[in-house]
From TrEMBL:
An annotated Gene Ontology molecular function: precorrin-2 dehydrogenase activity
Top-level taxon: Bacteria
Location of the Siroheme synthase central domain: 120-146
UniProt entry keywords in alphabetical sequence: NAD, Oxidoreductase, Porphyrin biosynthesis
GO biological process, one term: siroheme biosynthetic process
Record-listed E.C. numbers: 1.3.1.76
Pfam families, per database record: NAD_binding_7, Sirohm_synth_M
Pathway assigned to this chain's UniProt record: Porphyrin-containing compound metabolism; siroheme biosynthesis; sirohydrochlorin from precorrin-2: step 1/1
PANTHER family, A to Z: SIROHEME BIOSYNTHESIS PROTEIN MET8
Protein's name in the database: precorrin-2 dehydrogenase
Swiss-Prot/TrEMBL catalytic activity: precorrin-2 + NAD(+) = sirohydrochlorin + NADH + 2 H(+)
InterPro entries referenced in this protein's UniProt entry, alphabetically: Met8-like, NAD(P)-bd_dom_sf, SirC_C, Sirohaem_synthase_central, Sirohaem_synthase_N
Length: 213
């Protein structure tokens, strides 16, 4: 297999279809909802959590087995049934329409994999093992979660605003580069690692680009 190409996709308002309503489907539905997708689930049965989301109108639910052509209109498709025949049918339908497909039990037929993710505000750290060991992806995610705590999200939001102002107001490229470097200076990253957010704010605040934050 060639190397996988990592991308972060905007799913806001896009129709994403999940076939199957079990444990794995539930995990994928929740991550799609986090991304603001419009989610439709087709399955004879749902987990309690998925049923609650359907009852609340958060997801669309069509009770029943997958039927040929059900993928029509979807932006991407996740096939998460425990029925290999249904998964093959979904894969064929997606191939024909060139729809992006994640088939949870069939890496060969996937056109995309879902990585394990640490999220800290706008910071995303994604881990993929190219399907070789999803459990290792999970373990590394857990390790990264301990290493990169919620402060990283706060810090990113803070420097994101300042970076935007620097880009808008500083025209000299050398000066601009120095300022952007200063926002991610080693001392700041050390302070973050030590959980000393007051020090982080102090250091970031001392980056003087001649404008308010
Ligand atoms: C190819 C891929 C397709 C896809 O995108 O789904 C795929 C395929 C398969 N997973 C299987 C098993 C498990 N998957 C997990 C967990 C996760 N699986 C995820 C992704 C992926 N799984 C894609 C590759 C990602 C990559 O490595 O690059 C994660 C990262 C993301 C997510 O699913 O949201 C999420 C962790 C999220 C987190 O914790 O952060 C666990 C552990 C657990 O349940 O906690 C187990 C049991 C232990 C084990 O088997 O390792 C099986 C065998 C099923 C069987 O035995 O029948 C297959 C099929 C096969 O390999 O043939
Ligand atoms: N990619 C991943 O991360 C993982 C994948 N798996 C694989 O994912 C598959 C699903 O696992 P679970 O969610 O634990 O199974 P599950 O048994 O909890 O759920 C299967 C769901 O598929 C539905 N279903 C069955 N036939 C269908 C059809 N024809 N059309 C639509 N829906 C149908 C069932 O009603 C049920 O809701 C298994 O094949 C398993 O091997 C398992 C663990 C992790």
């Amino acid at each position: 297999m060639s190397a996988l190409y990592p991308v972060l996709v905007k799913l806001e308002g896009e129709l994403c279809l999940v076939i199957g309503g079990g444990r794995v489907a539930e995990r994928k539905v929740k991550s799609l909802l986090e991304a603001g997708a419009r989610v439709r689930v087709i399955s004879p049965r749902l987990t309690a959590d998925l049923q609650a989301l359907a009852d609340a109108g958060v997801i669309e639910y069509r009770r029943g087995r997958y039927r040929p052509g059900d993928v029509e209109g979807a932006f991407l498709v996740i096939s998460a049934t425990n029925d290999p025949a249904a998964n093959r049918m979904v894969a064929a339908d997606c191939r024909e329409r060139r729809l992006l497909l994640n088939a949870v039990d069939d890496p060969e037929n996937c056109t995309f994999f879902v990585p394990a993710c640490v999220r800290r505000g706008d910071l995303t750290i994604a881990v993929s093992t190219g399907g070789q060991s999803p459990l290792l992806a999970r373990r590394l995610r857990e390790k990264l979660e301990r290493e990169y705590g919620p402060l990283y999200g706060d810090y990113l939001a803070l420097i994101g605003r300042i970076r935007h102002n620097i880009i808008r107001s500083v025209s000299d490229p050398v000066r601009k580069e120095q300022l952007l470097e200063a926002l991610c200076a080693p001392e700041i990253l050390d302070a973050l690692e030590n959980g000393d957010y007051d020090r982080v704010k102090e250091l970031v605040g001392s980056v003087d680009y001649g404008g308010g934050s």
